Amino acid sequence: MTSLSRRAFVTTAAAALLVGCGGRPATSSADPRPDGTHAAARPGGTSTASRSAAEPARAMARSVPVGLRIPAIGVDTPLMRLGLAPDGGAQVPPVTAHDRAGWYRHSPTPGQKGPSVILGHVTVGPYGDGVFRHLARLRHGDRIVVRLENGGAAVFAVTEVRTVARADFPADAVYGDVDRPELRLITCGGPRSGSGYRDNVIVFAALTSANP
Predict the structure, then answer these.
(1) Which of 32, 74, 121, 179 is the most exposed place for a label (fewest CB within 10 A)?
(2) What does the alpha-carbon distance between residue 158 and residue 180 come to, in Å, rounded to a whole number?
(3) What is the mean pLDDT of the chain?
(4) How far is residue 9's CA from residue 195's CA, in Å, rounded to a whole number?
(5) Which of these, 113, 88, 121, 115, lies nearest to 20 by C-alpha position?
(6) Domains and CATH numbers, the chain
(7) Are strands 153-165 and 114-119 parallel, antiparallel or unpaired?
(8) Is the C-alpha dihedral spanning 52, 68, 3, 87 positive or negative?
């Protein structure tokens, strides 16, 4: 990611995502997950695990992501490419009945060294739940599979889940340089505030393997 793109994204991504998250509130993170297990309820601003727990894997060659699967919360979605909006803010997926997540194309591709960023909605206005409606229920060690354009896949393990106040968005931790391949999944969270939500849910994950 260029320094210009990073500055623009860091300062606008959280606000832009929250604007698009209208609709009915997300369910509690203590509700049952699609796999039948429960994730413990967590207060805002706390993490579920240390990011150092995942076993690192060798970085992969660049390949654009085309799909995302998170078995623990029933996510299986195509990925669109997101860039910068005309006003300089980060693009977010459109609010549609068939909600999809999107990869921010100015971040590394999943499996490359650095933080690859994927955005999604928790709710999509009149259409109800968004693709990342259960993101806050993820737990340490949960598996995330990103399908790549070259036919391979980058497999990540969750290392940390944070729910943070919008005003305290940890830009450096989310978008700052890291020395291994990592993934960030971002959506809205917490109670509603006006037309959006008060908080952001951020999932940190580290690459564990590559499937050719």
Answers:
(1) 179
(2) 14
(3) 78
(4) 21
(5) 121
(6) 3-211 (2.40.260.10)
(7) unpaired
(8) negative
pLDDT in tens, 101-126: 999 999 999 999 999 999 999 888 78
Alpha-carbon distance of 16 to 137, in angstroms, equals: 23
How far, in whole angstroms, is CA 111 from its chain's centroid?
15
Name the pairing type of β-strands 75-82 and 101-104: parallel
Q: Which of 41, 118, 127, 125 is nearest to 75 (CA)?
A: 118
Beta bridge partners of 30: none
With CA atoms as reference, report the closest residue to 131 among 76, 50, 202: 76
Contact 139, 126 (CB under 8 A): no
- pLDDT, tens digit, 9 for 90 and up, residues 169-197: 898 999 899 999 999 999 988 888 777 78
Outline where the chain has alpha helix (H): 3-19, 171-175
